[in-house]
Design brief:
The protein is of the alpha/beta class and 225 residues long. The protein is built from seven helices and twelve strands. It has a single domain (2-221), classed as Rossmann fold (3-Layer(aba) Sandwich). α4 (97-103) links the parallel β4 and β5 (108-117). It is an enzyme of class 2 (transferase).
Amino acid sequence: MESHISALNAQMDRITVLEQDRALLNLMTIIRDRNTNDREFSAAVEKIVRRLITSALNHVPAEEYTITTPIDKPFKGIRFTKGVCGVSILRAGACMEQALRDTWTGRLSFGKLLIQRDEETSIAKIYYSKLPTGISNDIVLLLEPMLATGGSVIKAVENLTSNGVPEESIVLVNVVSSKKGLEVVSGRFPGLKIVSAAVDAELTAQNYISPGLGDFGDRYYGTSC
């Protein structure tokens, strides 16, 4: 029993949920509101994603580094010791790339994964994978705004690890997770780190996150019917 509790606590230590302050809750209210148009939705998402990326970059290893300021005084800071690769799960994950470009100052590359799930069975399948050379040496930010059942994320992590990326070097960056999805993914990959802006308790019978925010890709790209 004690070992089970310890394992559960270790899983939760690898899951970061952003501080639910008023600024974030206001942004989450905007993107969850069915009356928010696509322009307002995307603008709010981009602000949330910047906060997520900043938090996720805390998982990049660093070392102490002392510099000299313009008044000839030493300053003990840090410098990162690894590069970063952002891997988008298309299409929604691609909307998080610009925030990573704007936030990260070190070596940066990008990869793409196209993963789709059968609407009836919810089984995910990879249709396209393009990853940069040397990705196994980087910290990989797996960009996926919605984590429902976890099927697509599991496929993505399996693809990354089969290409030499250590599980411990992968950080899932996510806007809204379901509680079930977090449990499934963190249980399947004990070394994976997850950074999310919100966790919703339920999934509908069709495996949509509830209360959720609807179809993220359609709302962000303005392709809703």
